[in-house]
Amino acid sequence: MKSFSYALAFWLAVVICPVAANLEATITYIEQRLLEGKTVAILYVDMQTRFIKYFDAVEFYRVIPEQVGLLKKFVGNDKVHFIDVNYANEGPTISESLQWLRKKAAYKLFLKDHDDAFHAIPEGGGRGEDQQVASELDVYLKSRGVTDVHVTGCFDGNCVRRSVKGALEKGYDVSVDRESNIFLRTDFLRDSFMTPDELDEIVKLRWSELTRDFPNLRMISDSRNRPCH
Fold first, then answer.
1. 125: which of 18, 36, 111, 166 fits an S-S bond (Cβ 3.0–4.6 Å)?
2. Helix or strand or coil: residue 146?
3. Using the 8-state DSSP alphabet, how is residue 160 labeled?
């Protein structure tokens, strides 16, 4: 039954729902930055197996091809670094993306115990993988000459947004396509004092505050495309 529901979700995402994430616009923007002599890091935030239960299935199958497409586009470009950011003890990155992340010579894994990826990484982190980096993300990026950061992953209103803010505060030029992020399933908000629409408005306001306060933030898309089911 579960496999049927996910198959149905995939069909809905491909056949009924338009592919809304602006992959080509994101690629064009990153390529332009590279032509200007910039070095880019793609931060892939918290797309981990233990968070899948919080994903909307239709949204997942709409967003994942966009995220993977971005990784595939730049996997052979030495001026683009892949940074896999995981919450400690929440499982590995989903296999659809991890296989492309690992193809990159400049791929690194960072563990965090805070929503903002730019907080210090606990040494060791409990994973012990060869490509894990037990140091602060900002220190690592600056040591590689990174000037630009593109952030994607989950969840849009929390860890992605906080990591964008962290990158901006560290002085990076930052880009984000909100339509390529995962949003928290609304049924997990049943104990909240806010309705899903009210929460959307608060998240939208917080993103707007970032665009107001940081001119070095480039919003490829500043809208949420609700799963169409």
1. 111
2. coil
3. I
